[in-house]
Amino acid sequence: MADVKALAEQLVGLTVKEVQELADVLKTEYGIEPAAAAVVVAAGGEGGGAAAEEKTAFNVVLKSAGASKLNVVKVVKDLTGLGLKEAKELVDGAPKNVKEGVSKAEAEDLKAKLTEAGAEVEIQ
């Protein structure tokens, strides 16, 4: 068990270059294709380096309602579950966050629906 812990400590201490070299050795000499995620996690120990963390939570920001304000209010109401008055206030107060902390796929879906209704939307 002590050997495993020592090995783990060595792996955590590797630089990005050393991780890449390890991945190359595993692939060429042993036929093991290391997962890209494992390389990124191991490289993260260096304090950022070449491997940046991927953002996982996004905010959907309504920049403006555009020409079809009524349509945008309806879509905001449906997407957020707000009442008609609250949805109108959100649209009138643009720029405002429509939803916060959502996945990239959900943010893209919300943006598409709002853009289709005539709104100007941004994902942050």
UniProtKB/TrEMBL annotation:
Pfam families named among the record's database cross-references: Ribosomal_L12 (PF00542), Ribosomal_L12_N (PF16320)
Keywords: Ribonucleoprotein, Ribosomal protein
Domain Large ribosomal subunit protein bL12 oligomerization, chain residue ranges per copy: 5-51
Domain Large ribosomal subunit protein bL12 C-terminal: residue ranges: 58-124
CDD domains: Ribosomal_L7_L12
Cited Gene3D superfamilies: 3.30.1390.10, Single helix bin
Nucleus listed as a keyword: no
Gene Ontology cellular component terms for the protein in this record: cytosolic large ribosomal subunit
Gene Ontology molecular function, alphabetical: mRNA binding; structural constituent of ribosome
InterPro entries: Ribosomal_bL12 (IPR000206), Ribosomal_bL12_C (IPR013823), Ribosomal_bL12_C/ClpS-like (IPR014719), Ribosomal_bL12_oligo (IPR008932), Ribosomal_bL12_oligo_N_sf (IPR036235)
GO terms classed as biological process: translation
SUPFAM superfamilies for the chain: ClpS-like, Ribosomal protein L7/12, oligomerisation (N-terminal) domain
Subunit structure: Homodimer. Part of the ribosomal stalk of the 50S ribosomal subunit. Forms a multimeric L10(L12)X complex, where L10 forms an elongated spine to which 2 to 4 L12 dimers bind in a sequential fashion. Binds GTP-bound translation factors.
Similarity remark: Belongs to the bacterial ribosomal protein bL12 family.
Function according to Swiss-Prot or TrEMBL: Forms part of the ribosomal stalk which helps the ribosome interact with GTP-bound translation factors. Is thus essential for accurate translation.
NCBIfam families documented for this protein: L12
Name of protein: Large ribosomal subunit protein bL12
Record gene name: rplL
